[in-house]
Design brief:
The complex is a heterodimer of chains A (387) and B (390). In chain A, 53% of the residues lie in helices and 15% in strands. Chain A has 11 helices and 9 strands. Chain B is built from 12 helices and 8 strands. In chain B, the strands form 2 sheets. A 4-stranded mixed beta sheet of chain B has the order 1-4-5-8. Chain B has a 4-stranded antiparallel beta sheet with strand order 2-3-7-6, with no helix packed on it. The chains are: A alpha+beta (387), B alpha+beta (390). Chains A and B meet through helix 7, helix 8, helix 9 and helix 11 of A and helix 4, helix 8, helix 9, helix 10 and helix 12 of B.
């Protein structure tokens, strides 16, 4: 058991922070946000050059090993700088699905392109009515006699859709859920992009009888449903890591502000209520950080433990993010509510976090279900005389 | 970074489980589950302490040359977790975790030779004489006086909230030996034999009717100067060291998890229709908070470097552990229902006694956010670190 970063982790951390400090100030972020689809090809190429697109990919697929803690470190720093680039949807989620579900040929074709930044893959999964991770999809894919496929359906709020060159579409087939790699420009694919309140972009994708070849079906995996759950869990943990960075920024900014702000002849940081509020914010942040790390450390665990750890993190980070964002505004007084205030962007980022990868209510239901199952298993085991 | 145990650690875990299975009597386990106070009944403590002492495991955290076990951090974590899982009694830490470490650092050779073996064996039972009626959070304002007279201090005053003073053989007391100057500078740390003339212990019952706290009156008690630990006027520094050392060493999360599992089991057993989902959500919410506490505890104990600012963590741990103890007690009472509110004399038998204990646990748990540094004090301590350099 070990709860520390290695030297390599610390090196990665300082190099990411340095890049963001030097090359991703607010002005660059604003510039990138103003581009079509909120995507800067040049920033993405920087990521590729720095090897960050290779971090999530395993060594045997040409990547840097996929150490979950590397991803935690990267995303915590990204969150603090409010990086709007679609790292989680494309570099992480899209690439991971290709890794786990692509056959050798598909992996050999797609992954090097992804790692070089030449191709971006977005996972088109959520639909209006179904919950994250469920398989009650309305998007369907029918197999033609010649082995090709026809896909019809609508996907909602696909993150990374703006920047993506290809979308990985989940669809119900006669054999259960499968994933198809579809070029955005394919005839029958209509993408409507829109900006969210936090300057990230998502797309609604309508597929009308989209015709793709047999090689577009990701055919290397054994259980698509499990692979989807695992990839989504990892992306969820990653989004939690980003929020830890967001919360740390908000806490630091607010602590500095209250020290400087004077009312009634004193810094408002001398007032006990303000002090205790900050203490509560910081404590929640550390709880959120602990559970996020745990979610990363349980990435490879058996699925009930992994799912339970990820849901716990999502719930706790959600609670902490709401409290810290709200109290940051509160402690900054009227200025905190304005468009000008720097914390506004972080506040909005936290709002988007809540609804991404399943909201708190969804994850609580999931956690309850798993706890119930584990309890039943444990009681049965005890009854059978085992330990 | 890794949460799993190595092969050796798993083997140690098996050794600990086997030891507990063989030596932790069912009566002791049941007693732990029904304990409504912070510490169990004295006889239960004594019995378990004796069993541990004979195994050489009474003080795992002491230096090996003093009787410690030399375990790694992982082994200590495993030990705590297994004891919690098995419902082993919690032994009062005053002697083993407070006075012991103080003596290692500040005790004279003869003091250590006299006191340490008896702390280890459990022959001496210690209580902590710090708080006074007029000095709780503001401990430095304490006024129990120790007037020098020849080779003795003549001690007069009163200590309050003295846990287990009714069973103690000795008190670790902070007394005022100096006069004038800043209040912290006139304080000394003395060991008071509870059998000395002038020591009177008066029980204080909690609203649940439990006797854990006391008020101790010291009326011209002659305490030999040789029983002063450390220098005269060094008492405050010793107390500060001790409070910082004592903080953040516990793994409260293991015990919390066991308590929550018991509550879930009781809820399922009672099978109240219509309440199930809401109760399950409450259980999940608490389970998540306990998991968060566990991660923070592990990061502290393993000296994690993920955070450059660590000094606030022990206060966060105390704050959260005490809040969660209250939350678990609250949920337990909610699940146990109205039956738990019958007065003690109507609760006879193991099952009834177990359910009834939820009311007392709930009432007594309100003290957890008050003693050991109140939540308000902890928040102030946390805040003080916000400004500190990373």
């Amino acid at each position: 058991m070990d709860l520390s970063y290695t030297e390599d982790h610390l090196l990665l951390q300082s190099s990411v922070r340095r890049y963001l400090h030097d090359r991703y100030p607010d002005s660059v972020r604003a510039q990138n946000a103003a581009m079509a689809g909120g995507f800067s090809d040049s920033t993405w190429r920087d990521f590729a050059e720095l090897g960050w697109l290779m971090l999530p990919i395993r060594g045997r697929n040409g990547g840097l090993g996929g150490d979950p803690i590397d991803i935690y470190i990267l995303l915590e720093a990204f969150g603090a700088a409010l990086v709007i680039e679609p790292y989680i949807p494309c570099a992480l989620l899209g690439a991971r699905l290709i890794e786990s579900l692509g056959d050798e040929k598909q992996r050999r074709e797609a992954l090097p392109l992804a790692m070089r930044g030449d191709a971006l893959f977005a996972f088109a999964h959520d639909e209006e009515r179904h919950l994250t991770g469920s398989t009650e999809l309305t998007t369907t894919a029918h197999c033609e006699p010649d082995g090709s496929w026809r896909i019809t359906g609508t996907k909602h709020m696909v993150t990374g859709a703006a920047a993506a060159t290809r979308v990985l579409v989940s669809a119900r087939t006669a054999d259960g859920v499968r994933i198809f790699s579809v070029a955005k420009k394919t005839w029958g694919v209509a993408t409507k992009l829109y900006r969210l309140i936090d300057d990230t972009w998502v797309g609604d994708i309508v597929l009308k009888d989209v015709h793709v070849g047999p090689h577009n079906l990701l055919s290397g995996g054994i259980n698509t449903h499990e692979a989807i759950l695992e990839a989504l869990d990892f992306a969820t943990a990653a989004s939690c890591a980003s929020m830890v960075g967001v919360m740390q920024f908000l806490l630091d900014y607010t602590a500095t502000f209250v020290k400087q702000r004077k009312q009634f002849g004193a810094s408002i940081s001398s007032f006990q209520v303000i002090q205790h509020r900050l203490a509560d914010m910081w404590t929640l942040l550390e709880e959120a950080r602990g559970l996020t790390l745990r979610a990363f450390l349980e990435t490879h665990a058996a699925s009930p433990y992994r799912m339970s750890a990820v849901s716990a993190a999502k719930i706790k980070v959600g609670e902490a993010a709401r409290f810290i964002a709200q109290q940051s505004v509160q402690l900054q007084g009227a200025m905190g509510t304005t468009a000008e205030a720097p914390i506004g962007a972080y506040f909005k980022n936290a709002m988007v976090f809540e609804v991404s990868f399943g909201n708190s209510a969804y994850h609580l239901s999931r956690h309850v279900a798993i706890l119930g199952e584990q309890y039943s298993k444990a009681t049965l085991a005890l009854a059978a005389g085992q330990e | 970074m890794d949460l799993s145990f190595s092969a050796e650690e798993l083997s140690f875990q098996r050794e600990v489980r086997a030891f507990l299975k063989q030596n932790l009597l069912p009566s002791l386990r049941q007693s732990t589950r029904e304990t409504t106070t912070f510490y169990p009944q004295h006889e239960v403590s004594r019995e378990w302490h004796s069993i541990l002492y004979h195994r050489g495991w009474a003080a795992p955290h002491w230096p090996v040359e003093r009787g410690g076990t030399g375990w790694t951090t992982s082994q200590r974590v495993i030990w705590e977790a297994e004891c919690a899982l098995a419902n082993a009694p919690v032994i009062s830490p005053i002697g083993l975790s407070l006075v012991g470490p103080v003596l290692f650092r500040y005790g004279s050779l003869s003091q250590n030779a006299f006191y340490l073996p008896k702390i280890l064996s459990g022959e001496h039972v210690w209580c902590q004489g710090f708080s006074e009626p007029g000095a709780g959070s503001d401990l430095a304002s304490l006024s129990t006086r120790a007037r020098r007279d020849g080779s003795d201090y003549v001690v007069s005053g009163s200590k309050i909230w003295t846990t287990l003073a009714q069973h103690a053989t000795h008190m670790a007391a902070l007394v005022r030996t100096g006069g004038g100057g800043p209040k912290q500078e006139g304080i000394s740390f003395v060991a008071i034999d509870m059998a000395l003339p002038g020591v009177v212990v008066r029980p204080i019952l909690t609203m649940a009717g439990d006797h854990e706290f006391n008020q101790v009156f010291l009326d011209e008690v002659r305490v030999p100067v040789v029983n002063r630990i450390g220098e005269e006027g060094q008492g405050w520094a010793i107390a500060k060291h001790l409070l910082e050392y004592e903080r953040g060493g516990d793994i409260a999360s293991s015990r919390l998890r066991v308590a929550l599992n018991d509550i879930l089991a009781l809820h399922i057993e009672l099978s109240v229709p219509g309440d199930t989902l809401a109760a399950r959500q409450m259980v999940s919410t608490l389970a998540i908070d306990i998991d968060a506490l566990e991660m923070m505890e592990l990061c502290w104990i393993f000296n994690s470097n993920i955070n450059s600012k660590r000094a606030a963590i022990p206060s966060m741990l105390k704050l959260r552990a005490s809040q969660l103890q209250q939350a678990v007690a609250e949920l337990g009472l909610q699940v146990a229902g109205g039956q738990a509110l019958r007065a003690r004399e109507h609760n006879i038998g193991a099952a009834e006694g177990s359910k009834a204990s939820f009311a007392a646990k709930y009432m007594n748990s309100r003290a957890n956010t008050i003693f050991g540094g109140s939540s308000e004090i902890q928040r102030t301590l946390i805040f003080r670190q916000i400004d500190s350099p990373s």
